[in-house]
Amino acid sequence: MISIPCKRIAYKPAMIEELIIRTLCDTLPSSADGVFLFGQTADNQEAVFEMAKELVEQKLTDKVMFLGTKPMSGYPGFENWKRALKGAGLKETAITAIPPVPSDTDLLHTRIEAESVVSFAKAEGYRKLIVVASPFQQTRAFMAAVTATQKLYPQLQLYSLAGKAMSWSEEVKHSQGKVQGTRAGLIAGEMERIKKYHAKGDLASVAEVLEYLNKRDRGEL
């Protein structure tokens, strides 16, 4: 019987798998200039509210930021979110409205939100921001934020923090209030959007976002 030696094969996870894990389990700075909450429907807003409150209570930041618009595209609007967060114990002085770019937009999506907050961060001279979305949306939202950063403000250090996990089997509305399904069922749609928006040129590649994270962690931004 002939014995054939086995070659050792180094396992390298697919890049999207690495990015998903890193966006859901990112390392956070000891302090940040602010936390930005990507717009959620009313069904999912508590996921980002909980994280915002925790960051302020732990003194990682003193600014909670989200789009300063009226209700649109499934987002309940700045005033409704401010009221809800104040009711949960957040001080009004900690809440910051981000002007939308373009200012006359009549719809919201992740690219508009990302470019709006990065433009604001550049104008204010911020260096470190934490971005939060619902867990099923977090990877794509962070990719959108990195895409905007590379375009508008390459020195900005972004950190990813997924919102609080909520029941994965609950039926909810998402994606401008037009898509409905269980939170678990929405994951596949988010992965498809990553492929679609990258193909359109609206989203940086997985490899580019991973390289951004590596440069950030090496202090090269």
Question: Could you please describe the fold and organization of this structure?
Answer:
The chain is α/β, with parallel strands linked by helices. It has a single domain (29-217), classed as HUPs (Rossmann fold, 3-Layer(aba) Sandwich), CATH 3.40.50. The chain is built from 7 helices and 7 strands; from the N terminus they run αβαβαβαβαβββαα. The strands form 2 sheets. A 5-stranded parallel β-sheet has the order 3-2-1-4-5, with helices on both faces. Helix 4 (110-124) crosses helix 5. It is globular and about 40 Å long.
Give the tally of β-strands. 7
**Percent of residues in beta strands:** 5-15%
Order of helices and strands: HEHEHEHEHEEEHH
Within CATH, the superfamily carries the name: HUPs
Total helical elements: 7
Gross morphology? globular
Strand order of the largest sheet: 3-2-1-4-5
Give the total of domains: 1
Mean pLDDT: 91
Low-confidence stretches: 1-12
Largest sheet: 5 strands, parallel
Classify the fold: give the CATH topology: Rossmann fold
Overall CATH class:
Alpha Beta
Structural class by SSE content? alpha/beta
Tell me the CATH architecture: 3-Layer(aba) Sandwich
N→C terminal distance:
57 Å
Q: Helical amount among residues, as a percent range?
A: 40-55%
- C-alpha-based Rg, rounded: 18 Å
